[in-house]
Design brief:
about 325 residues, little secondary structure, two-stranded antiparallel sheet
Length: about 325
């Protein structure tokens, strides 16, 4: 038989001890920290308010003469000398008389004396033929008329005659007859759920909260620290724009006036070259390095052109079947084709 465990576990004794978590992390008594708040009482200063800012203290305004602009005038500089309008084109250009333009005379129209031959291929080949006009076989458009009376008998009138039709049979509805006896209008609900003598159930409603007599203090930290203080509108501190000229005359000039003095000058002279070619009275020296250092060498003629002349350096040796001639130098025995 297999030995199986019943699944129950029995401890030999009760465990007495605290785990590490409980021994290290113990609940300590904490005292509630009281909020540090400002009492909200504002104490105004008894000293008068000094409205001077850092800008007013550091950048003081002194009485000084308005600066006169020393910018040069934008007017163009005019010269008293007459304007020199002589240009290179006016100096060098010579106007030559041009010959009259050749005009070709127009040819006069001469009418042709030979009368026009208006005979065409159409007129010559397609001549009028004497033939009768082709007769038309088209039927006449007039309608057919007969003196006999019109016969209005049709197949429909002859074959489909009018027969007498009887009206359709209509079935009559049965007359309603009231049932015998009286109708019982009582339902299960009316018979079983009858009114009982009982009082109306009272609603078990919790008692309303009791009102506490007193003023609610709903001031927050923001409302106590950041309050809207009544303050008057500040008047801007402006200095009067009245200029007071000093009694002592100003002695001295500025650096700009001392260094940059206006100088009267005329129009600048043009140093542009006149563009005329340089001419010399000396004869032209046409000697170049190529002409002075170049030595002409003798060109040796092609040996093939001197084979049949006394200046040939080759001697005829033999000729093959195809007509090729073989030559050999006069001082060697090798064959040259």
């Amino acid at each position: 038989m297999p030995i199986r465990h019943d699944g129950s576990r029995k401890e030999p004794a009760n465990f007495e001890g605290n785990p590490t978590y409980k021994s290290d992390y113990r609940p300590w008594e904490l005292n509630r920290t009281q909020p540090i708040r400002h009492d909200g009482g504002y104490v105004a200063s008894s000293d008068p308010f000094n409205g001077d800012t850092t800008y007013y203290q550091d950048f003081k305004r002194y009485n000084q003469t308005p600066v006169k602009p020393i910018r040069p005038d934008n007017a163009a500089l005019q010269s008293n000398d007459p304007f020199n309008d002589r240009t290179g084109y006016r100096e060098d250009y010579v106007k030559h008389d041009l010959p009259a333009k050749y005009s070709r005379p127009k040819d006069e129209y001469q009418a042709n004396k030979i009368p026009l031959d208006s005979m065409t291929t159409m007129r010559r080949d397609f001549t009028a033929k004497g033939a009768e006009k082709a007769r038309s076989f088209k039927p006449e458009n007039g309608g057919y008329r007969s003196e006999a009376p019109f016969d209005d008998d049709t197949t429909h009138k002859n074959d489909f005659k009018k027969w007498e039709v009887k009206p359709n049979f209509a079935k009559k509805d049965n007359e309603w007859k009231p049932p015998l006896g009286e109708m019982d209008l009582s339902t299960n609900y009316n018979s079983e759920f009858t009114p009982k003598p009982a009082q109306k159930a009272m609603a078990i409603r919790p008692a309303s909260r009791r009102k506490i007599d007193g003023k609610f203090e709903g001031d927050t930290t923001y409302g106590q620290d950041f309050r809207k203080w009544p303050g008057d509108r500040r008047t801007p501190l402006k200095n009067p724009n009245e200029y007071q000229a000093p009694n002592v005359p100003f002695d001295g000039t500025s650096t700009y006036k001392g260094h940059y003095l206006p100088v009267a000058g005329g129009p600048s002279q043009s140093f542009k070259p006149d563009g005329l070619a340089y001419r010399s009275d000396q004869p032209f020296d046409g000697n170049t390095l190529y002409r002075t250092e170049f030595t002409q060498k003798e060109i040796e003629p092609c040996p093939a052109t001197l084979l049949e002349t006394p200046r040939a350096n080759f001697v005829f040796q033999a000729e093959d079947d195809k007509g090729h001639k073989f030559y050999a130098p006069a001082h060697t025995k090798s064959i040259v084709a």
